[in-house]
Structure formats: structure tokens, C-alpha cells
Specification:
Number of strands: 18
Low-confidence stretches: none
Shape: globular
Strand content: 25-35%
Order of helices and strands: EEEHEHHEHEEEEEHEEHEEHEHHEHEE
Oligomer: single chain
Strand order of the largest sheet: 6-5-4-3-2-1-18
Bound molecules: zinc ion
Mean pLDDT: 95
């Protein structure tokens, strides 16, 4: 179990894969959570290539039901069943997901060897002690969600200061985290003096959408924004027609949202010989743009 948030780019292509890029799928790992965002065809093999165990999965977040984002689900679930997966798997998606997910399981004869919870979500839909998940509707011709994983900011005790002031650790420090002062060996110490605020983290996933005003506000302040970038600026009309984004649009969203880093995925295979042009286009507008390859890992401390 790790306290760090880890992102594994399992697939970074769009609807047509290449020898180097598989269909969309990104895995977010944090403590005991393994959250898969989209599950394109062949995602379960990408797990193996990344030396990750799919049985650790806890949640699948489906952005929308276009084939390139969901075709990996039946095979993956079948493997989980055969591997003795015994947890509850939560599957979240936009409206329509319950019917479509049940149809998919039926079509492929996937037996429910383990409990599968299917939820159609918008807004804040899952909350743990230290993080929560949010969904926001996008515009893509079909129902589509963008997602954010938000790790809450927390108050931490400054151990260096404790040592300096010769204050021992133990349950007497408990109130500090609640913002209350403590008395130690007859002396009063304020919470402000002995604690500091560890900032929260936000990771956002925007896959398959046309440009709309909700994106920047939804991903506002993201430490990492993973965004589709199907086309280049020259093909902006085509992007609009097919309800997708260009690299420039993704970069402008990152800039407006004051994101720290932008990772472009779902890049059309037509750019496979010149991926650098997509990155260059984005970097002109937003310097901290990156173009991850399949199986790249990013850690957010
Ligand atoms: Zn797609
Ligand atoms: Zn799509």
C-alpha cells in the first residue's frame, strides 16, 4: 500500500490502436484503491505488461460507452472470475450504464462470480476518509462523464518542531489535528505552532468530449489533468464535428483551469508518425504538457 498516488497509462490511443498504443485505459492507485478509468480492448494484457495484478482492481470508471473505451470489460471480468476475485467491484458510468453493463455481461456470458455494483453517477459519488470522486457530464453525442479524484488536504503534526521543543509524541498530541492547543509539561502550545497543512491533490480525467464551458471549471486546480487530444489545431473543424478536442484546446483548458500538468492521450493514430507535433502545439500554450506512452507511470507526491 502506498500513500502516493500512482498513475499507469495502460492505453493511450484513440479508437484505432497502433503497435505501440492500445485503446484508452488509465489506472490510478492510491493506498488500497485501484481505480481504472476506461477499459479499452486488450486492457487486461496491458495490466500484465505493466506487471500489475488486475485482481487488485476496486473500481472501474467508464467515461462513455463508445467501443474503444469499454471493449476490454468482458474479458477483464472473465479473467477476474477465473482468478478468484472475491471483492465487490464497483462500476461507475453515465446514465444508461446499468442497462449497457448488464447487456454486455449477458452478451458475453460473463457469470457474476463476484458482486458487481453498477452505479450511474454525477457530482460527488464516492467518498472515503481522505479522498473522494466526482463526475461531470461532458458533450460527446452520447452520454459521457469526466472524472476527478480528489485527495483532501490534511493537517499534519510537524515532527521537526516537536523534536526541537523536546515534545514527545503520543496520544496527548491528538487535539492538535483538530486545531486545538495542548498543554505539555505545564506549557501551552497552539495547534498553529505545531502543525502544518499538507495540500490536497486533484487528478482529472477528460476523455472524449467536444469543447464546452464545464471542462475548465470541473478540472480547476488539478495537479494532473489527463485530457483527450484527438486532433491537431488544423483539424479543429473535424474535431468539432466528431465531438473531440484538439491539442490546443486541451492546453487552453489546462491553462484556464490552472492545472499543474497536462497529459494528452487519445491522440488519433493519423499523428502516429509525428506525435511530437501534437506535443509542440500544446506546449506553445501550456508548457507543462506531456504525451505519455503506453505503460508510462507517473507518481504524484
Ligand atoms: Zn474514444
Ligand atoms: Zn467516444
Amino acid at each position: 500500500m502506498t500513500e502516493k498516488i500512482k498513475l499507469t497509462f495502460l492505453g493511450t490511443s484513440d479508437a484505432v490502436p497502433s503497435a505501440l498504443r492500445n485503446h484508452p485505459a488509465v489506472l490510478l492507485t492510491y493506498k488500497g484503491e485501484n481505480i481504472l478509468v476506461d477499459c479499452g480492448e486488450g486492457t487486461q494484457r496491458q495490466f500484465r505488461k505493466a506487471r500489475l495484478n488486475p485482481c487488485r482492481l476496486t473500481k472501474i470508471l467508464i467515461t462513455h460507452w463508445h467501443a474503444d473505451h469499454i471493449l476490454g470489460i468482458p474479458g477483464l471480468l472473465k479473467t477476474l472470475g477465473l482468478s478468484g476475485y472475491n471483492k465487490k467491484l464497483s462500476v461507475y458510468g453515465p446514465k444508461g450504464t446499468k442497462f449497457l453493463m448488464k447487456s454486455l455481461l449477458k452478451l458475453f456470458g460473463v457469470r457474476e462470480d463476484f458482486p458487481i455494483e453498477i452505479k450511474e453517477v454525477s457530482g460527488r459519488f464516492f467518498a472515503a476518509d481522505d479522498f473522494y470522486l466526482e463526475a461531470k457530464s461532458m458533450r460527446h453525442g452520447v452520454r459521457c462523464n469526466a472524472y476527478s479524484f480528489i485527495k483532501k488536504a490534511r493537517t499534519k503534526i510537524d515532527k521537526k518542531k516537536l523534536r526541537k521543543l523536546k515534545i514527545s509524541s503520543g496520544p496527548h498530541l491528538k487535539n492538535l489535528k483538530k486545531g486545538k492547543s495542548i498543554i505539555y509539561k505545564g506549557k501551552k502550545y497552539s495547534a498553529k505552532k505545531l502543525t502544518y497543512e499538507e495540500p490536497g491533490k486533484k487528478i482529472s480525467f477528460v476523455l472524449d468530449t467536444s469543447l464546452n464551458k464545464d471542462i475548465a471549471s470541473f478540472v480547476k486546480g488539478s495537479d494532473v489533468l489527463i485530457c483527450e487530444s484527438s486532433y491537431s489545431h488544423e483539424l479543429k473543424d473535424l474535431a468539432k464535428r466528431h465531438h473531440h478536442l484538439t491539442a490546443s484546446q486541451a492546453a487552453r483548458i489546462a491553462k484556464k483551469a490552472k492545472a499543474k500538468k497536462l497529459f494528452l492521450i487519445h491522440v488519433s493514430q493519423r499523428f502516429s508518425k509525428n506525435m511530437k507535433a501534437i506535443l509542440k502545439e500544446a506546449r506553445k500554450i501550456f508548457k507543462n504538457s506531456y504525451l505519455p506512452k503506453d505503460l508510462d507511470v507517473v507518481e504524484i507526491k
